[in-house]
Amino acid sequence: MVSSSIDALFLGSIPLSSNEEVFATISTALNGRVKQIPDGETGPRANFIGCQYPVLPNASLQARWGGQAPADQTTLDAKSSDLNPIGYDDWAISSFAVFEDLQKSGKIPSDVRFQVSVPSAFGVVQGFVDSRFCAEIEPLYEEKLAAALARIQSSIPKDKLSLQFDLPFEIGALEYESGNITDPHWKAWFPKVQQGLIERLARLFKLVDEDVPLGLHLCYGDIGHVHFVDPKDTGILVQFIKAIHEGVEPIHDISYIHIPVPKDKTEAAYFEPLKSLEINPNTKLYLGVIHPNDEEGSKSRLEAARSAYHGPCGVSTECGLGRTPKEDLESIISIAKSLTT
C-alpha cells in the first residue's frame, strides 16, 4: 500500500455510454481519490482529435484525409470563417450541466472539479493539415480554440473547472527531431522544434484564467494500443518538462503533468532521468503506471518511478481510455483504488 497522498487522474476519454455514466461511475468507485473528473469524451470525441478534421478547410487537408490541393500550390488565402466551430465549448458546457446536477445532489463530492481536456492547435494542425499549409492554418485554428476556451471559462464557475492540454503531437515532434522516429508525419513544419513548441504553449497558457487549474497530458499515443514510438526512458519527457517550467510556467501555474509508463517498463532505467527533474512543488506528476489486469505490474512500475522521483505524485493510466475495451475499465478502477488507498 502506498501513501494516501497519492490520488488518481483520468485523462479524458472513458469507454462508457454517456457523460452521466462516466461521472457516476468514477465518482462512486473512487470517492475521495480523484480531484477532477472528465466527461469521458463519449460520442464523436472518443477517437481523440478525429472529430476535428471536419473543422478544417478541405483544401488544407493531407491527402490521407481527402485533401486534393495541386502539388504546386503553396497558399490557400484562408481566413477564420473558412473553419467550422471546433465544438469543445459546446461539449463542455453541456457536460457541465450534468456534472453540476450530480454534484448538487451529492453524487459527486463538492470539492471535485469538472475536467475539460482539449488538444493544442499545433496537434490538430500537425495531425490533419498538409505541411504546405500548416503555418497558414495554425493561427486560424488557434483563434477558434481561444474563443472556445474563453466561452468555457465564462460559462463554468472557475472553482468548479480544470483545464488539461493533450500533447501527443508535441512529443512526436520532439522524438522525430531526436531521430527516434523516421515517419515524416511527425516532423514539425518549423525549425528549432522545442523552442517553437514552448512558444506555442506560452500562447495557450495565456488563454487560461489565473484561477483555473491547468494540467498537461504528455502522450506517446495509443492507436491499437501501440505507441508511435516506444520510448527507451523518460529522457525526452524530462527535457520537455524542464523547458516548459522554465519558459512557460511563469505565465500560469501548472497544477499537474502526466507522463506515460509503458507496460514493460518496470526497471529503474526507464525512470532514471526523473532523478534530475526539479519542478514547482505545487505541480503534481501523474505517473501513467496503471495497465488493466496487471495490478502487480502497476505496483512495480509505481515503486520504480517513486525510487527516482520523490516529489508530489499521483497515478493514472498510460493514455486516455477511448480505445480501451469497456470490460477493462473495472480492472483499471480496481487498480487505481489499490494504489491510492
From TrEMBL:
This protein is called Uncharacterized protein
Q: What is the lineage of its organism?
A: Eukaryota, Fungi, Dikarya, Ascomycota, Pezizomycotina
Supply the SUPFAM superfamilies for this chain: UROD/MetE-like
